[in-house]
Amino acid sequence: MKLKLASFLIVALLPLLSLAQGSSLSIFSEDGGRFILFLNGAQQNSESQANLRIEGLTQPYYKARIVFDDNTKVPVEKNIQVVDPSTNAPADVVYKMKSKDGEMKLRYFSAQPIQPNYTPPADVHVMHYGQPDQVTTTTQTTVTTTGANPGNGSVTFGMGAGAVNITAVPNTDNNATQTTAATTENNTNTQQPAAPVVCQNPMDWNNFKSAKKTIADATFEDTKLSAAKAILSSNCLLAEQVIQVCHLFGFEETKLKFAKLAYPKTTDQGNYSKVASVFTFNSSKTSLNNFIANGGR
Questions:
Q1: Among 62, 128, 137, 208, which one is least packed by beta carbons within 10 Å?
Q2: pLDDT tens, position by position, 137-189
Q3: Which residues fall within 8 angstroms of residue 203, CB to CB, at 6 or more apart?
Q4: Torsion over CA of 42, 46, 47 and 48, rounded to 10 degrees?
Q5: What is the pTM of this model?
């Protein structure tokens, strides 16, 4: 009896224990427009982004407010779910911003199980909920010295995380040189980079079908690529799925760029040489094959 009770309690507490680990929320703009995100009234990113990921979300729902760089777009407010809608378990949840009937809408896109040691693409701005975003502070000091200066120039001294740039500008009125020193420091919550993730579970075909439609519906090539990158930020793919995404692009250069981005997020890398079939030019095929042979470098 005691054993059954203990088992029941463990099963009942598993969702709560899992939720304590936190979900992640990714939001990307289908049109590449940049935005500031507020969750429960707290501003998340200090600089506007087009592709944003917030980690460590321990509540199942948040009130989101999105303010756009483009002030012709009306801010969006919506209560959003950041757990798997079918199981209520923590997940990597993705929403997309899209224009519909002249208004910006925030739409649920996908939810995938949390991947340990996940490494997002380089163009995704990642933050941890409740921790400050990077802040850049610049201090400028002007010193005027007397005496002739035959020319002007600029010297930069770097030390640690900051750098000092000194520029000498001649003042022809009084034969004086005005020296301006600017010091830039990055104050940020430093986190150790996560180890590269080894993808094991590819995106299921129903979600992939929806993802393909999002990419295909994008009007411009760079918008298609932005949407494809956002999908990679929270999903792993099969080589066959990479091939199908590549066929959605109109330019060889874009296909090659995506194929290289998708390689480390592919579960069956042994089949990746098949992706070269999407290219028209031998130079593109050779570039991808060399990339694969060098371990994705």
A1: 137
A2: 444 444 444 444 444 444 444 434 444 444 444 544 554 444 444 444 454 44
A3: 110, 112, 211, 231, 235, 236, 237, 238, 241
A4: 0
A5: 0.48
